[in-house]
Specification:
The protein has about 120 residues and is an all-alpha fold. The chain has one domain. It is about 70% helix and about 0% strand. The chain is built from six helices and no strands. The radius of gyration is 14 Å and the shape is globular.
Length: about 120
């Protein structure tokens, strides 16, 4: 387990913290694109590896049915947000998805997963 305080990790599970994190990071808003789909899958996989270590459950991150449900919800949120974007904004989001997905894929430990959040401005 990381040396981070448990309340800080529980904040990771807060729906409002997750929503804020998505906005703060300018995360993928171009559902259906390979980079954004990959990002959603990568986040779900990282959570699947780390939630237990962090003392959290899938229900606490808004997906009581597990990683596949989380990834589906992520893609749904991105699709909804995409509706108002111009073609240029969509292209920018795709680039952001790819960059963030690369950061996630390099996070091998749960501590590194937290560092990816923190390195992208998400405050828990």
């Amino acid at each position: 387990m990381t040396d981070r305080p448990l309340p800080r990790l529980r904040a990771l599970a807060s729906p409002s913290a997750l929503a804020f994190g998505f906005l703060l990071l300018g995360l993928p808003l171009a559902a259906g694109c390979a980079p954004c789909d990959a990002w959603c899958d990568d986040v779900a996989a990282a959570y699947d590896r780390c939630l237990g270590e962090w003392g959290l459950t899938w229900a606490m991150v808004g997906a009581p049915d597990g990683p596949d449900a989380y990834a589906d919800q992520c893609r749904d949120r991105e699709e909804e947000a995409r509706a108002g974007l111009s073609a240029e904004e969509r292209a920018t989001r795709e680039d952001q998805c790819g960059a963030f997905s690369s950061a996630w894929s390099g996070a091998e430990t749960c501590e590194e997963v937290l560092q990816v959040f923190e390195g992208n401005g998400v405050v828990f």
